[in-house]
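User: Thanks for the earlier help. One more: 4-hydroxybenzoyl-CoA thioesterase. Can you show the sequence and predicted structure together?

Assistant: Of course, both are below.
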Amino acid sequence: MAYHANYLRWAERGRTESLRAMGLPHQMLMEGHHSILVVRRIEVEYWRPARLDDAVVVETRVASVRGVTLLLDQRVVADGAAEAGAGPLAALRVELACIDRGSLRPRRIPEPWRSALEAVAPGGAAGAGTGG
């Protein structure tokens, strides 16, 4: 079975790829705004084990956007399981904080990240969810 910490790695990659899919790579946030998103809090609930060499998909949804924080819901599912109606392997609730790269002090999530994330949050202009 897959080691439990692998779910954290998969979720991290899912968050990175979700931002990239929105046209907002993390590298651009670092270089253009001298900011980074860091994990402030994470909760993981494990439902079923992933087996070694299983292909998995990480679904990432924006739950809310606040001044300096972003709350995400992520689900790790076996590849093809979502279409088959199977439940998740794990569910994660992740709170990210935007901080200045140099001082490590909190800072407001800059544009265009803020608007793009708010647009996919529940109640946002574009509905809920980002692929991952």
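User: Great, one quick takeaway?

Assistant: Confidence is low (pLDDT under 50) at residues 126-132.
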